[in-house]
Amino acid sequence: MAQSRQKDEAVLPEVFECPQCERQFVVDLVETSDDRSIWCPQCGRYLGEKDVNFILVTEIEELTERLRFERDRLEKDEAVYAMTDCDVELRKYGTEIHKVVNILRRTMADLDALKQSYR
Ligand SMILES: [Zn+2]
């Protein structure tokens, strides 16, 4: 059986997006190179150092971004369906979804607090 090694054992490759020019690129966060700085290959903006804290902060930021998207989506649902003149079932959805939104908010606050501890 042929063993396929598609990539050379890269540890923790991460996709970055430059906040300045929005170029996306991949960085292997753990490597033996002396230069630990991460620069945007397009505009040259300095993005940070490759270390474990940086990896953790990056992961948390990505997760928070996804949660924020979902929270916004559910908040809109909540605003629509919590209104009086709709179907009983839908109105129940509107009030119950509020609980889910609250959990998302708490989780995002927890993640933010955790993120601060890695700074
Ligand atoms: Zn850039």
What do you see in this structure?
The longest helix has 30 residues, at 52-81. By secondary structure, the chain is an alpha+beta fold. The protein is 50% helix and 18% strand. The model is unreliable at 1-10 (pLDDT under 50). Helix 1 runs antiparallel to helix 2 (88-117).
List the helices and strands and how they pair.
Blueprint: E1 11-17, E2 24-30, E3 37-39, E4 46-49, H1 52-81, H2 88-117
Antiparallel strand pairs: 1-2, 3-4
Identify the notable features of this structure and list them briefly:
two-stranded antiparallel sheet; disordered N terminus; binds zinc ion; 4 strands; 2 helices; 119 residues; 18% strand; alpha+beta; elongated; single chain
Cross-sheet strand order for the largest sheet: 1-2
What is the residue-mean pLDDT, rounded to a whole number? 82
Kindly give the count of domains. Answer: 2
Poorly predicted runs are 1-10
Any ligands, ions or cofactors bound here, and which?
zinc ion
Distance between the termini: 46 Å
Number of DSSP strand runs: 4
Alpha-beta content class: alpha+beta
Helical segment tally? 2
Write down the secondary-structure element order: EEEEHH
Shape: elongated
Q: Helicity, in percent? A: 40-55%
* Sheet of most strands: 2 strands, antiparallel
Radius of gyration: 21 Å
Strand content: 15-25%
